[in-house]
Amino acid sequence: MTPRALKTPPALAQAWAPLQAQWRRLAAREQTLVLLAGALVALALLWWLLLAPALLTWKTSAARHAQVDAQLQQMLQLQAEAQQLQQAPRAPAVDALAALRGATGQLLGDGARLVIAGEQATVTLQQVPAEALARWLAQVRAQAHATPLQARLTRSSAPGAAPAWDGTLVLALPPG
């Protein structure tokens, strides 16, 4: 099929007719200026709609890639920790309670009171340093296989002082 064989639809031909007549009335210099203005508008649209977003994505891709890699490493570390906890031999309930009592006395000191009821332990905290609480939670999870069920904590430290917590933690103890 040759280009001449293509027919313009009548409605389109009627719409183009006034534009073509106006184009023919323009001087050669004006036609050149209109073409240059159209090319400039087309280039601006090309930049704003296609190139600028792609360049921005390309520029930020390295930082985004590093961020996703860091998240992946953290997730892999958490997965390894979870697998290690799942594969760790379960200590008898007596040993778990001893580990819980020992960690509470050693890491939380006088700022914590431990009450054990069945397969749950409730720890009441008063002015416990945040760092000590974090270490205690990690140790209790690893050694006593206790998992937090509920936490009601409020920050109790003065502004500018080291963070401390008041409140209660309810832990599930391993069945025994």
Automatic annotation (TrEMBL):
Gene Ontology CC annotation, any one: plasma membrane
Entry's transmembrane regions: 33-58
Domain of life: Bacteria
Any one biological process term the GO annotation gives: protein secretion by the type II secretion system
Subcellular compartments: Cell inner membrane
Keyword Nucleotide-binding: no
Taxonomic lineage from the root: Bacteria, Pseudomonadati, Pseudomonadota, Betaproteobacteria, Burkholderiales
Main localization (coarse): membrane
Protein name: General secretion pathway protein M
Membrane topology: Single-pass membrane protein
Protein family: Belongs to the GSP M family.
The entry's keywords: Cell inner membrane, Cell membrane, Membrane, Protein transport, Transmembrane, Transmembrane helix, Transport
Coiled coil: none
InterPro entries to which the protein is assigned, alphabetical: T2SS_GspM, T2SS_M_periplasmic_sf
